[in-house]
Amino acid sequence: EIAAVYPEAKVIHIIRDGRDVAVSTMHHIWNQAEDRGGHSRITPAQREKREAYWKDPEGLIRHGGGIFPDGWLRNYAAQWRRRVGRTVEDGPSLLGENYAEVRYEDLLARPEEETERLLRFLGVDAGEEAVRRCVESSGFERSAGRRRGEEDATSRLRKGIAGDWRNVFTPEDRRIFKEAAGELLIRLGYERDAGW
């Protein structure tokens, strides 16, 4: 639709490891729950998990069976696989040179390099000063008011790191996500193979 309505549009697809997206989404659901003035409906059991996580994250992961409700992670992984997988396939074929991808993890690891590449793709000033301004104005520290990695589980900008799923997923969560979306994780370079 974008190509038909606005054929000269440049589209940047930001890809993030689906396991980190699942963790982030669960926190957003918790933070936007009706009992906190939001719109998400969560069960009493989910509310209990949320409160346990906020009190002792490691304890919940170690002894409480993880943060995800039964069946939720499998469905979420399948949705992530469909949405991201389809965009990775359709973007280049439908938009050609007007489509670019960037991994969230690469933005964190090499912000200047990736920002310069994306600015060049957009056809705008990609000089050193422009890149510096973009990186400084959008950094986690500036946006969240704390250092990357310092968690505020109740904030929209919770932690600002990549790979936190490793601290949150139980072995069963890992198995479920890999079973539902492992092929795309491998294709995008988040996993090497289908094994553990």
Keywords:
globular; mainly alpha; 196 residues
Descriptive notes:
This protein is mainly α and 196 residues long. The chain contains eleven helices and two strands, in the order αβααααβαααααα. The chain has a two-stranded parallel ribbon. The chain is globular, with a radius of gyration of 19 Å. The model has no long low-confidence stretch (mean pLDDT 93).
Offer a quick outline of the entry.
The protein is mainly alpha-helical and 196 residues long.
Q: What is the residue-mean pLDDT, rounded to a whole number?
A: 93
Largest sheet: 2 strands, parallel
- Low-pLDDT regions: none
* Share of helical residues: 55-70%
* Helix count, DSSP H or I runs of 4 or more residues: 11
How far apart lie the N and C ends?
A: 39 Å
Shape: globular
Strand order of the largest sheet: 1-2
Radius of gyration: 19 Å
Secondary structure tally: strands: 2
Structural class: mainly alpha
Q: Quote the beta fraction.
A: 5-15%
Order of secondary-structure elements: HEHHHHEHHHHHH
Tell me the layout of helices and strands.
Blueprint lengths: L1 H4 L5 E5 L2 H14 L12 H12 L1 H7 L8 H24 L3 E5 H6 L1 H12 L5 H11 L1 H5 L20 H4 L2 H17 L9
Parallel strand pairs: 1-2
